[in-house]
Structures are given as structure tokens and as C-alpha cells.
Amino acid sequence: MFEEHHVRSATPEPLLALHNVCADVIEDGASQRLLHDVSFSLQPGRVVGLAGQSGSGKTLTCRSILQLLDPAIRINGSIRLRGDELNGMTEEQLRTIRGNDIGYIVQNPMNALVSVHTIGSQFVETIRTHARCSKKDALTLAVQALESVRLPDPPELLKRYPFELSGGMLQRVLIALTMCLSPSIVIADEPTTALDTINQYHVLEELERLRMNQDVAILLITHDLDVIAEMADEVIVMHEGRIVEHNDVLSIFNRPQHSYTQELLRSRLNE
Ligand SMILES: Nc1ncnc2c1ncn2[C@@H]1O[C@H](COP(=O)(O)OP(=O)(O)OP(=O)(O)O)[C@@H](O)[C@H]1O
User: Fold this and answer.
1) Which intervals hold domain ABC transporter (predicted)?
2) With bands split at pLDDT 50, 70 and 90, how would you rate the model's confidence at 7?
3) How far is CA 73 from CA 11, 68, 239, in A?
């Protein structure tokens, strides 16, 4: 059993608030609902874990927030960032929000980096599209960020190409890149799934430091309930595109209410 302790009470104004978000896919003229009235909010400095088996709608929920969806998918409902509605914003407005306000860390960091450019040029390019600064200042910022995720020899690392680094190093590079943009929210979609145990530990530690040092709100998607137990303040359990349970982490693990949450916890114990 997990030890009970007081969970910090929520502040009144959420950083991000989803209200009745629905996603429908239109295929061959027919519409199928993939997300059903998803509602929750994120507060600064808190980690919300999103759990549920494969196909339950976790990634779709993240990508709805970022409005990074297949054109066949339509979103309804409200997604507010500090009160501003994201649903319906122009692509240009959204591009500013992605990175500046909301960082996105994905399972396979290779997909987020361009293989033919050095790590350094990608840092400079990304930093300079979000903030007005010289190349030299961008490189200084990159070195500091790489040092803070404890990667060895950052100046040398900046000269290397993504394919020259391991998955764990790349994931930490991506976290460092995200840190340079100082987002208030980080969405981490299965950030440790492709990593070995040691690298999993390092990546989770860096996410924890982001939350502690920069008061970042983290939406952590993982099928790994041990990671959720370790990191999250609250847990949202999704099943077939719906939120079936949302509670603080101790209540979810000690007193799960929904039969699907109970099943999910039982399957973890049997693993
Ligand atoms: N572009 C799309 N067209 C049709 N169906 C889609 C599309 N994208 C997602 N879906 C469906 O929506 C449902 C939710 O998918 P989603 O990727 O959010 O699941 P998930 O919980 O993240 O699963 P996993 O853990 O395997 O990544 C699935 O049934 C999936 O097949």
C-alpha cells in the first residue's frame, strides 16, 4: 500500500483546461467517435499521469491539445490555455504555442529531430524561431541546457548527429531542447518506453527537475503504472476514449473505484 500524505490543493485558475473534448474520425463518409467528453485541467508544478491500455485514447488526447491531428479527425469542445481557446486557432498561432508554452516529448526522439542536421544546428534553429537571440547566445543556452540534463561534454555533443547518440541520450537532448524554450506545460508521451532501466531513471529524474525548478505542469502518458506511481500527483484512467476515473495518485492505487482501474492495477501486479 502507498503511504497517505496530503495532496496539494488545486489553485483556482488552471494553466490548461479541457472541457468536453470529443474527437471524431470521418472515414468513407461515416463518422466514428474516438474521444468522448474528455475534461480535466493542469496546474503549475503538478504531474498528471494518463493511464490506460493501448488504443484507449491517450495519444489522441495529447495531440488534440497540441492540435496535431490527422486531417480526417475533427475536434469539438474547449481546450483553454490560461483562458485562451486553442480549438480553432490558426496554425501560425498554434506554432507559437507549441514549444513556447507547451513542450512535447515523444516516445521516439529520432522523430522529433532531423537526422541530417547536427544537434547544435537544431538547438540554434529551434531557439531562434522562438526567441530573438544571436547564434552565439543560442549555443550558450544549448550548452547550459545539456549540462543541466547531465550529458557529458555538451560542446562536443552539439557537433554530433542524432543517429550518433543512444536513445536515452537523445531523449535527454530533447528534454534539454524543451527546457531552452521554458514552456509552462510539458506533454510527455511514453517518454521512457523505448529506454533501458538506467536511461528510464535519468529521463524521469530530468522531468522531475523540470517540475521542481521551473514549476512546469507535466502531462505524463505511460502504460507503465510504476512510473505513474513514482511521478504523478493525479491519475486519469482512460478506457475506450473516455475518462473512467480521475483522482489523486494515492486514491487511485489504494482505493480504485472503477472496475477498469481495478483490472489495470491487477494486471500490473500479475506482470
Ligand atoms: N488517424 C486516425 N484514424 C482513425 N483512427 C484513429 C486515428 N488515430 C487514432 N485512432 C484510433 O483512436 C483510438 C485511440 O488511439 P490512441 O493513439 O490515442 O491510443 P493510445 O491510448 O495512445 O494507445 P497506445 O498506448 O497504443 O499509443 C484507437 O482506437 C486508434 O485506432
Assistant:
1) 16-265
2) very low
3) 33, 10, 19
Centre of ligand 1 from the C-alpha of residue 266, in Å: 24
Whose cell is 550558450? That residue is: 140
Give Cβ neighbours of residue 129 (< 8 Å, ≥ 6 apart).
Answer: 99
Q: Enumerate the domain spans of the chain.
A: 16-270
Ligand 1 surroundings by CB, under 6 angstroms: 25, 34, 52, 54-60, 70, 72-73, 223
DSSP string of 213-254, one letter each residue? HH--EEEEE-S-HHHHHHH-SEEEEEETTEEEEEEEHHHHHH
The interface pTM score, or ipTM, of the predicted complex is 0.95
**Beta carbons of 38 and 76 less than 8 angstroms apart:** no
Q: Which atom of ligand 1 sits closest to the CA of residue 55?
A: 19
Helices (H), 131-188: 135-148, 154-157, 167-180
Interval between CA 1 and ligand 1 midpoint (Å): 33
Q: Tell which CATH classification among 3.40.50.300, 3.60.15.10, 3.40.50.620, 3.10.580.10 matches the domain 16-270.
A: 3.40.50.300
Tens-place pLDDT, residues 110-136: 777 888 899 999 999 989 887 788 999
Dihedral angle, C-alpha 217, 220, 225, 226, nearest 10 °: -60
Taking CA atoms only, the protein residue closest to ligand 1 atom 18 is: 57
